[in-house]
């Protein structure tokens, strides 16, 4: 079922809760610039295994409200805390893709992993998404600035171009159109503001504060968050497990769909 949770005055977050009535809760955090529907091919399968699948739309995306501000990782992580407390969730697996993975890391540090017992980082945009003088990994800030500029001048074209590097497998035109549509459902302003957060935020200090079993799921062909980011996360999060996907790009949840679902179930247990 779907419902709205108020996270601050005049800001309501949409939550899709697929609950078979028993089993472990998995809270999915979507990446930029999509929404919870990107996990359709997980939501089709995992509830059959008894898992409660909960997908949220971050503020500004999907069916959630579109406030003018509140797109820092701190605020987005605070939204997650309110959702977890409102739903009275316990023993949660927090599963974040790309920007959602970055928000999940900030949640673990800022909220001391409140109610989370396992962390699944899916092609996470972390520990830092863009290059720095002391960090020669990831995209350049100029590349992200082009995404922001494209958001404000021709968002459909920007989404088309971004979609072209997202997956590393054959896609039907119908699937491309569907995925493109997820990005168009977002607020253009929220899309740009979250791109700024992706460009500027730094999660390196957060990693040492993660104290739950962590699975790092990452495609070897990822052109958005290069595989070296997964290796840095693995080195920085004690006791973490690196789970590589040889034939996947950024969209590993679809590139190697069956392996992805199988490995996620194995990791969660």
From TrEMBL:
Task: Please give the Gene Ontology molecular function terms for this protein.
Answer: hydrolase activity
Q: Which InterPro entries match?
A: AB_hydrolase_1, AB_hydrolase_fold, AB_hydrolase_sf
Q: Where do the AB hydrolase-1 domain residues begin and end?
A: 24-133
Specify the enzyme's EC class, one word.
hydrolase
Q: What is its EC number?
A: 3.-.-.-
| GO cellular component entries | membrane
This protein's UniProt keywords: Hydrolase
Record keyword Hydrolase present = yes
On the tree of life, the source organism's domain of life is Bacteria
Classification via Pfam families: Abhydrolase_1
**The protein's name:** AB hydrolase superfamily protein YisY
Q: Which organism is it from?
A: Bacillus methanolicus (strain MGA3 / ATCC 53907)
Q: What is the lineage of its organism?
A: Bacteria, Bacillati, Bacillota, Bacilli, Bacillales
Question: What gene name does this entry carry?
Answer: yisY
């Amino acid at each position: 079922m779907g419902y709205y949770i108020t996270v601050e005055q005049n800001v309501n977050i949409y939550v899709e809760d697929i609950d078979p009535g028993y089993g472990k809760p998995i809270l999915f955090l979507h990446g930029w610039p999509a929404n919870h529907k990107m996990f359709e091919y997980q939501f089709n399968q995992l509830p059959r295994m008894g898992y409660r699948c909960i997908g949220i739309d971050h503020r500004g995306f999907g069916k959630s409200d579109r406030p003018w501000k509140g797109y820092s990782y701190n605020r987005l992580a605070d939204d997650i805390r309110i959702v977890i407390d409102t739903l009275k969730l316990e023993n949660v697996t927090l599963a974040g893709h790309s920007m959602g993975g970055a928000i999940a890391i900030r949640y673990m540090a800022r909220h001391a992993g409140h109610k989370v017992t396992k962390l699944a980082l899916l092609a996470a945009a972390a520990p830092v998404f863009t290059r720095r003088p002391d960090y020669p990994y990831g995209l350049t800030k100029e590349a992200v600035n082009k995404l922001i500029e494209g958001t404000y001048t021709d968002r459909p074209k920007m989404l088309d171009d971004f979609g072209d590097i997202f997956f590393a497998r054959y896609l039907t035109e119908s699937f491309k159109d569907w995925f493109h549509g997820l990005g168009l459902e977002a607020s253009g302003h929220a899309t740009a503001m979250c791109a700024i957060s992706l460009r500027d935020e730094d999660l390196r200090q957060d990693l040492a504060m993660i104290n739950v079993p962590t699975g790092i799921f990452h495609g070897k062909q990822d052109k958005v968050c290069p595989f070296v980011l997964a290796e840095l996360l693995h080195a920085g999060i004690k006791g973490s497990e690196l789970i590589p996907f040889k034939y996947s790009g950024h969209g590993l949840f679809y590139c190697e769909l069956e392996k992805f679902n199988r490995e996620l179930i194995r990791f969660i247990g």
